[in-house]
Write the structure tokens for this entry.
Amino acid sequence: MVKTIKGLNSAKKAVGSGSKVVIKFFAPWCGACKQVEGLYKKFSQKYPNVKFYQVNIDDNPDLTKHYSVKFVPTFFFYKDMQLSSKVGGSDVNSITKSMEEL
């Protein structure tokens, strides 16, 4: 299951919510985001020990700036509350590799 983050406090709680966390920054108008949406949902089902979140950049401009997101989609992979990997773009191989290494 993918949960939605709204605001910095929500993001901090998400990062601290489990030993493995993935946050996807996206926009509803973004074609590349739509391309990887199905993959992200599949990962959320395949990896039940990982918590999955998403942030709509249009609804959260301050959060987007705080995380220095320059383009979408951008994925942040956290392990034990530490950033372990960041993938910008819709390259399925890079996203899958970071997911498997988490």
